[in-house]
Amino acid sequence: MPDILSDDIGSVPLPAGADKEELRRIASDLAAGKAAGGKKEIFNKIVGDLMQEKIDSGIMRPNYPQVQDMITSFGSLIEDHSEEDEPWVVKKEYAVIPEISAITETAKRFFKDTGEPLRFRVCVTGPLELYLKKVGGSIQPDLLMNLAKSVSRFIENSRIDTPYMKTALYSIDEPSLGLNPNLAVDNDVLADAWNLSTKKAKGIDVEMHLHSPKALDRLYGVEGINVLGVEYAANPKALGYVDKGEVESYDKFLRIGIARTDIQRLASEYGERFGTDYWKDKDKNRLTSEIENVRNITKRLEKAYAALGDRIKYAGPDCGRGSWPDQESTYRLLKNAAKAVSEFNASNR
């Protein structure tokens, strides 16, 4: 069997003292080429250090640290810098993800230490999600396609191929798909938008990241998407929505969430098990040493593999680590997930 690659979704708790809104303002200025040197250094240091933590955890395809809100980080640039004759189409020079530039020095250190480029994952909020947050559920196909063109420009500008840094995986994030009961849009319209979005990603894996598996059937025939994301760790029933025959027929692969990140439920279980308030406990290690430990994460991967076999190409934590209490907790979770995947690979070679 080919090795499964460990990855992560992107969101992270910010270090103490960092302010999300301030980072968003700096990122916006960086994209516009007008950030002062000191602000740029602050941004690069925070993002670079967060990326180093992901690398140190052993994750094979770390996502750039997502320190901004998934909507405003793309939507504000689209709104502020659209083409004059094409509403919601961002000018190409402003289709920038500043976090990617911010990890350059981290990537160079990785290359110096290993002799290998840092192969990383890039998440971009999808055109449907941007549309829903901007307008609502009444989809106008022409405007959706304009947003898809914007997404395509973000993807094109984030395609990095240097000796020390390579874009290895894209993720189109559409969390409302399958969850929004009022969504009325043709599958062909969505497929056209996603195919346009991913046009510049040829030769690189492209995942569709969902929060619900109920929409998987809308993705099997989408040419531009070859990896389907399944949030499985917190929702074991999610595997039941995967049609392995369709996955194989359309030559798709899967990204499986194998480590839970639903921190509110985990905290409740922690309290029941250990008789203490997780949020007030100074030593929170038992969450990752006794609940979300390597053994339990590995068991999920084994169960998923028994059902889906070598259609699983990527595995890692579910999304949602940004709401965790601190970086140390999420680092331990990442490390457990990375170790579970590595040990699974080693035992199945």
CATH class type = Alpha Beta
Can you summarize the main beta sheet? 8 strands, mixed
> Helical stretch count?
13
Order of helices and strands: EHHHEEHHEHHEEHEEHEHHHEH
Task: Give the domain tally.
Answer: 1
Q: Poorly predicted ranges (pLDDT <50, ≥5 residues)?
A: none
Calculate the mean pLDDT score and round it: 95
Number of strands: 10
CATH topology: TIM Barrel
Report how far apart the termini are.
7 Å
Proportion of residues in extended strands:
5-15%
What general outline do the C-alpha atoms trace?
A: globular
- Roughly how much helix do the residues carry, as a percent range? 40-55%
Radius of gyration over C-alpha positions, nearest whole angstrom: 20 Å
The secondary-structure class comes to alpha/beta
- What's the architecture, going by CATH? Alpha-Beta Barrel
Characterize the structure shown:
The protein is α/β, with parallel strands linked by helices. The protein has one domain (5-255): TIM Barrel, CATH 3.20.20.210. Helices cover 44% and strands 14% of the residues. It has 13 helices and ten strands. Strands 1, 4, 5, 6, 7, 8, 9 and 10 form an eight-stranded mixed β-sheet that branches. A two-stranded antiparallel ribbon has the order 2-3. Helix 1 (20-31) crosses helix 3 (72-80), helix 2 (37-57) runs parallel beside helix 13 and helix 6 packs across helix 7. It is globular and about 60 Å long. The N and C termini lie close together (7 Å).
